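hey can u check if this looks right to u? its 490 residues, i copy pasted from the old doc so theres a chance i mangled smth
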Amino acid sequence: MFRTLFAKLAMSLMLLLAGIGLLYILLSTSITRHYQQEFVQSLNSDLAANLVTGRNLLRDGVLDQDALKETFHHYMMVNPDIEIYLLDGNGRILSYSAEPGLVKREHVDLSPVQNFLSGGEFPLLGDDPRNYERSKVFSATRFSLNDGSPAYLYVVLRGQEYERIEQLFQNNFLFQLSAAALLASLIVGLLFGLILFRLLTRRLNRLTGLMQRFGESDFIEPIRWPGDTRRRDEIESLGDSFNNMAERIQEQLEKLKKQDSQRRELVANVSHDLRTPLAALHGYIETLQLKADAFDAETRSSYLQTALQHSTRLTRLVDELFELAKLDATDAPLQTEPFAAAELAQDIIQKFQLQAEQKGVQLKLDVGDSLPFVEGDIALIERVLVNLISNALQHTPEGGTITVSLRQEDSGVRIQVEDTGSGIPEKDLGKVFERFYRGDNGARSGEHAGLGLAIARHIVRLHGGVIGVSSEVGQGARFAFSLHNSPPDA
């Protein structure tokens, strides 16, 4: 019943208003009672003294017992609101204006009486002789008895009869006041409170509905919280958070879809590239097995050499797959250290020199002056250069040239591998780094669409850089990336 935020707010408001109403009634009742006591005591402060003098209770300085009895009897009949008591000097009750059995106390505390006679601040409450637990406002005066001992006339201003009638009306009044105050508070407070809560929760309900629709659409529908620039409250902040979350979820879903598509494409390409050398290897070995006696030594050697090439190609492809998978791991650490990029490039070119000569390709190194040390993982940077030079050798015809150049930049060293091969069509430049990418026109197609360039791009990214390519068909291709300078204290 109270599961919604609106219902909980409404119930909380009702309880709050009821508590405030009850507190108001208690405070107003206490203040009213205090005011009435002060008013009655101030109005009748001289009543006891007037009774002594006005009713002639003292005759020639001596207490007139007959006048006292007559006064008691008179006020019992005429004004039952007051109760009159005669006290001795110790506060013991000597006589009173009441029916027998009504007076419970035998003594009255004289401290409030002394405070009254000395002009204490009203209201002053004294003992009620008819009740051990209550205190009431009073009027008092001091005089002497027949034997000269001190005595007090103690007048309770709001006696038992008055209190009974007052309580009857008061109960009825307080009930009506309580009911009226609570009812009015609840009606007015609830009316405005519910309107306010409805205005506040309406926007929250709209946001909840948007979230539910977004979930029901499997996070595909582009649902957004419209927002209101005039209101920058918590609901708007929640709406902004929902928008950010929805965008992030959809970006992640798109990324997952793209990764799934790439995974399917990768599996298909891997299957194709693995199947081709495997089938060729199997075919040559099977042919040798079936016709070994029919082949001469030269033919058998040629078949074995071809099978070995396919085996080498297969091994290289598997190694590249494992290497790329290792680089894809988020926890793959970089063993960075300062090194001379020119020396590394020189060593790699020497490794490819024989292969280049066999193919009739000239391999050159062009190093700028005073190159600084760079920071990086030497083994991985070597792998980048090996892949780029190997790719260039694969696509550079006989008589061509491959140039590895190094130049200093503001924040590091720029390394470029340029060939005079077949070049890359402009529409394919943005795709050459994709895994198993194959060009449509086969301008730079080789034995297989390997992973060398994809591995190179991944390694450069791990070093915080970007590898770029520029080319024109028939004019060769240029691959370049930069390495940061080594820190001065390295």
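The chain has a mean pLDDT of 80.
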